Amino acid sequence: MNLSQICQDAIAIVKETGIFLKREVEAFDKSNIEYKGAANNLVSYVDKEAEKQLVAKLSLLVPEAGFITEEGTIDKHSDTLNWIIDPLDGTTNFIHGLRIFCVSVALVKGKEPLVGIVYEPNLDECFSAWQGGGAFCNGKPIKTSNVESLQDSLISTGFPYSLAGKITDHLTILQEFVLQSHGIRRLGAAAVDLAYVACGRVEGFYEYNLKAWDMAAGVLLVTEAGGKVSDFNGGDTYLFGGQLVAGAANVHEPMRNLIASYWKNVEL
Ligand code: IPD
Ligand code: CA
Ligand code: CA
Ligand code: CA
């Protein structure tokens, strides 16, 4: 497989959907909100329409690949190769008209991302990577931050739609990051958070209860840009396990240690 070529072709497809999102946010009417089982877990026709566009075009690009998608508009799974798609990452921002959202698409073999694209249409920034090929923003190479300590870092995070049973751990960890870094940001789109780790705008990102579509493209961006990713134990269960800590080379381990010392279910 020519990953570089697949990446270039997929970028064009992902950008078309990003432009669709940018157009739709202008006229979005909140009477179109639907709920996914909880009052704070929002979705709309835009998420589903964006996913259908991506599936139709990516099916033609790599016909043998299956799909793992947030909105479940296609039932075609492969045991080896899948497109993992978040058609609109940052739905809550989108619905409120806050212009921080993106399209996130990855081609994944097993649990190993081969190609990853995160397109943020509001800033017209397209982050892309393929395995072994480096990471790019609008075609220019990007690197994670070379900051040497957590103290000099800006850290982003997110909160899952359900914090049940974990709110105390989460707030303690948040408090420690506020005290031990330059500060905390909550952008509202995990794939944007990861793209920003990859290009050094923030030094690290952590969250739990993430889904594969929130992470698949972004983790490849981070590793190809020179950063590190793991679950809270330092293992590699993140993609389908939900816990993710991603950071610049010098910051990942201090972040992971901080999280692990307050996260009750993590064995130290
Ligand atoms: C959500 C966003 C958010 C993160 C949530 C995700 P969605 O994805 O990435 O930043 O905190 O955990 O579910 O629902 O907007 O695609
Ligand atoms: Ca998402
Ligand atoms: Ca989404
Ligand atoms: Ca969602």
TrEMBL record:
UniProt keyword Disulfide bond present: no
Known catalytic reactions: a myo-inositol phosphate + H2O = myo-inositol + phosphate
Cofactor(s) this protein requires: Mg(2+)
CDD domains membership: IMPase (cd01639)
Keywords: Hydrolase, Magnesium, Metal-binding
Record-level GO BP terms: inositol metabolic process; phosphatidylinositol phosphate biosynthetic process; signal transduction
Entry GO MF terms: inositol monophosphate 1-phosphatase activity; metal ion binding
One Pfam family linked to the record: Inositol_P
InterPro entries: IMPase (IPR033942), Inositol_monoP_metal-BS (IPR020583), Inositol_monophosphatase-like (IPR000760), Inositol_monophosphatase_CS (IPR020550), Inositol_monophosphatase_SuhB (IPR022337)
Enzyme Commission number(s) of this protein: 3.1.3.25
UniProt-annotated binding residues for Mg(2+): E70, D86, L88, D89, D214
Organism superkingdom: Bacteria
Listed Gene3D superfamilies: 3.40.190.80, Fructose-1,6-Bisphosphatase, subunit A, domain 1
Family: Belongs to the inositol monophosphatase superfamily.
Protein name: Inositol-1-monophosphatase
Taxonomy of the source species: Bacteria, Pseudomonadati, Bacteroidota, Cytophagia, Cytophagales
